[in-house]
Records
---
Amino acid sequence: MEFDLRKAINAISDVVQNRPAPIREFDQIYMKVADMVIQAEYVARVFDNKDVVFVGDGDGIALSTAHLKAQNVINYGPNSIAVLDFDERIVNSVRRFGEKLYPKIEVSAYLYNVAEALPPKHFGAYEGFHINPPWGASNGGESVIAFFERGSQATKEKSLGIVVIADDPDLPWTQEVLRDTQRRAFELGYVVSEMLPQLHSYHLDDAPDLRSCSCLFRRIDPNSMQSRSEPLDLERLDNFYGKNSPLRFRYVRQRTTLNQGRESDQLYILEKLEVNDERND
């Protein structure tokens, strides 16, 4: 791993300038810049010459990885990156920035909420996936597992998956979520190929020392792949973004702004998720 650190930080700074402000209600907590450099380079190395999907990407790691390659900071990286996110602000920012990187790397973005079945065009379409989901402190890791399942569904038989989740040996819930995520991954035919513990830090006021790890999963048993994608069961939506914070909204819709070149200042509309709640029948 040899590259010009100054050029790398400047490239990541371009991405940070482009991304929208985080919405804490949806557990959008952004990674710090130095750790974004580390993660983006790692993603580029793992997914070299592959077609990759990011299921959610508030941090901007997809664009960071692509930008490092396009700027020749590194000479490796994915062939293409697709971002699936429920936040239209993020989708638009990825599309806007990604246009500048073509043809050195193809970047696309689509509106999608993990509560819904994966669209057929994305099912089994990619060679690797990346997730940094809500970490599941209040729902037994169900939010992590939901994102993992969508990433798994979006990839081919011999796929790789990078999972970024909380990792603090002094916080039992982080270790339990890590254990349960690995258990579900095993059921889906994966093994842990590599783990980089306590690697990233975040702009998180109420837990500034909480870090995340980066786990690399490799699928070894295609027979365990899911053959179809279904909407999440209603009980899995509870506490999705934290205690008493269920998944209720389908999309964050962006309001138009006169300044098309930059992200508007937290101007957004929440579009409610339509579900059939049989529990109220």
Note: The chain has one domain: 5-280.
---
Amino acid sequence: MNNNSTKKQTRSRSPEKKAAQFEKILEAGKKLFLEKGREGFSLRGLAKNLAMNQNNLYNYVESKRELWIAIRNKFFKQYREENIKIIKDHKGPTKNLLMNIFKNFLEFAEKDFGAFSMMHLREYPPSNKIGPFEKEYREFNYLRGTAKVIQNAIEAGEIKDSNAGMLTFFTYSLILGTALVERHMRIVEQDPKYKEDYASEILQFGQADFSREEFRNFVLEKLEHLLKD
């Protein structure tokens, strides 16, 4: 019995190693989703990229939909924790807190647009089966959180408009659009294939006489003035 017990302990992974392997799966899965899209992605391809047995991969995720949900959960948790820290550290007018949250939204998109796009722009892969990640899924309602901060600013007399819900959708549409424009500008700057003879509408975003940083500051400044009026 002792020999069998020793063998089982040798074969089984420690919780730390399992967690580290799961992180590798999430990062490799994100990369492959972005390269192949929902339709082109497969767990078989992911297992191959990880030099991992496909059956072993199923011990971590049951389907590509489950993997997608797990990836989004990871980055929404990261984004939530960043915002919680911003809120805890904030001192001063509520409107300034709101602007700091908007800035963090844009900075998050700049740091990892792949994760950002899976969080805000792309839909889940379909599946006929609900797996454990989906069963335990808790919606990250960033609109509700933003609306709460806006409502606090309204009640403090810092924002004149009284419709917190409408303002939330309005501001979200502005910063989401800004994140996309910044992404296009960054692609033209950094990818050498985007030259004058390259067939892509994205090229026009490289023809501005201002930088990405100047554009972001302009949007945030205008947004702050709009909230005052």
Note: The domain at 75-123+140-228 is CATH 1.10.357 (Tetracycline Repressor; domain 2).
---
Amino acid sequence: NFTQQPHLAGTQENLHLAEQIQANWKAFGLDSVQLAPYEVLLSYPNETSPNYISLIDERGQEIFNTSLYEPVPAGYETVEDIVRNAYLAGAKGLILYSDPADSCAPGVQPYPDGWNLPGGGAQRGNVLLLDGAGDPLTPGYPAKEYAYRLKEAQSAANLNIPVHPIGYHDAEKLLKEMGGAPAPDDSWKGQLSVPYNVGPGFTGTSSKRKVRMHIYSFKQVRRIYNVIGILRGATEPDRYVILGGHRDSWVFGGIDPQSGAAVVHEVVRSFGKLKQEGWRPRRTVIFASWDAEEFGLMGSTEWAEIPSPDEGFEGRSLFESWYEKNPSREHKGFPRINKLGSGNDFEVFFQRLGIASVDKFSSYPEIVEKFYDPTFKNHLAVAQVRGGLVFELAEAVILPFDCRDYAKALNSYVDIIYNITMKHQAAMEVHKVSLDLLRDSVKAFSEVANDFHHRLELVDVHNPIEVRSWNDQLMFLERAFIDPLGLPGRPFYRHIIFAPNSHNKYAGVSFPGIYDALFDIDHKADQEKAWEEVKKQIFVAAFTVTAAAGTLKETL
């Protein structure tokens, strides 16, 4: 019953759901389950004065209003860069819509006849212009009741222009008589029956019409609640494996987040059953239901025996169907696992703290049963993968990390950066920029990783001190890639190997400092300064990789 009611963060309905999950997890047998409250700034619609967009004539009369509600709810992601760029370009307001060219698969009907976004469905998300994540009034610190808070005008919550999402049916009515210059090229055009002119103003008899935004949203500090369940470890209780998913949703949350929340819930139930039968994990397992966040911890080396839920792969493993449908480009014989970007709760764990993490969308509850997973067999497969991953990480005497895989990945990431630099060969020669230092450091890391695993084969698994020492090296490797100073202009993100793309937070990039320095470098006004920044970021990356290799060397 996770989707019976809308449960926006900071509302009584979401608190009730948190208390329900707390009670369930206690009944499942976890050692402790607590609610962890935080006071954060959230934005809410005005219940009596909803936001809308109107088209007004020369007399100021409204001749068209966008819908005050969606015929059926929908959910999508964030558009921070669009807002920032619109403000810098002088826009007074921003109206967002999801064009069918971007949001609808060909040959599929809009919901409820298919799973495409309907014309009345508006994009959901936030436009918080924050470096990183978290409460905008307490950046870098927990938003407890006693916390020091910035003034709203000083914070990232001080959005400079109003933003309002509408459905593509309403957008079509606004765009069909748009004037101004034509679209620069076809990439600016979508699938609506409009010319896609870029404005300003309207054409013909509509030339005197204007668009008016009616925005009545308000911001308020509200209390949110994380649910934290703990199953204490028997041998290494001070070492944690964390599995979580967010609970809050824009409306009912049939897919985002409750499909994932249901999987976490089932894993908790399974671990509770094992505990009742006398089992206790080697390491402590922490289960979390996050509020006002999106967290995912998913993926495993323990999926091979899980039956595939995909049609055409009956009798074969999930690993096989995953590999055949989406093979890795870098690693032959393995399925693809994407780089972690942003938009999920792993962001602070992985890209700020350097804790190894892996990743796990629509708000129509019945779309899952009707279109995506009618028998919920995919949910079962995901629960088995997640549960198997957590079990392995919590139980394995030696942590199941292979540093040689990291070395292979680093080599492929250097190749990606090299391919980008190939477009600037002449400039690199002029400014004496080379990737040799980075290649040498990655080569040295590979050699150290190989030596580490050769020595690891000789470990005495019955010696707890020796096991602890080896596991420390494996566990702290990821943290060795953290730069305390953070990325240039993005200090929240401190991981030198992985970060969200600075121009698309949902995508991840490798060697982000170098990638950002090279982005659009031909158009930088001061070329000498721009290429010096590239040199600096190559050095930072090479230094960090070398330092990380040092954590794998034989201890004294």
Note: The first helix runs from residue 12 to 28.
---
Amino acid sequence: MSDTVSHDHEVDVLKPVELSGEIPRHVAIIMDGNGRWAKAQKKLRIIGHRRGVETVREVVKACRELKIEVLTLFAFSSENWRRPAKEVSLLMDLFFTALDREVKRLHRNNIQLRIIGDHSAFPERIQKRIIKAQVLTANNDGMILNVAANYGGKWDIIQAAQKLAAKAARGEIEAESISDKMISAELSMSELPDPDLFIRTGGEERISNFLIWQLAYTELYFTDTLWPAFDRGEFNKALSSFSGRQRRFGHTGEQIEKLRNA
């Protein structure tokens, strides 16, 4: 991906850094390693996923205390349907339970929950609970928690392109006028700042079809720590790594300093 950025975009891409100082406004996480953690503990894979929910709870708490504005978690990708049917079924049950139990906790803490992705593939009972959870927390004005479920970055771009194609077909826009800002406006989380920091646990160093448009200028952090073992100390390591980086967006270090001091 290119590191270049137009002059018109300078203020937009620098704004998260200027507002947040050493703390990112938006953190996105691929929570990898639940199954491997369970295997190492000689436990069933679903035990690893349940332990992973506990880690989510702690990371949400840490973000709220640090006043991180947005946390986006990759819970279930569009590719995860390929897993063994029994595991998928157990994951659906866990998701259903968490949407009830954890959402109540989120609501008490003034956290707004948003589920991004293609909900239509989920069983009806889960679709109804997603709607109920989002309605319950819709007016909360604290931190925003995005949970990506049946989400894929390619799917996100395709659905945005389809919306723009429909507008062009209706004569509302000219195809030649489509810009990156117009595409961004049709994506999931369009009204939120793009992630400043991306974290992937579990040792893999790829983004795996997660927010592939929104991560264009994001700082990437990879750790071998498996998600169930990702504690406050590990989270602090990621934040410390972020705070020590200079985000240049194609500029020189000197240019960035001048823009910040302007």
Note: Confidence is low (pLDDT under 50) at residues 1-21.
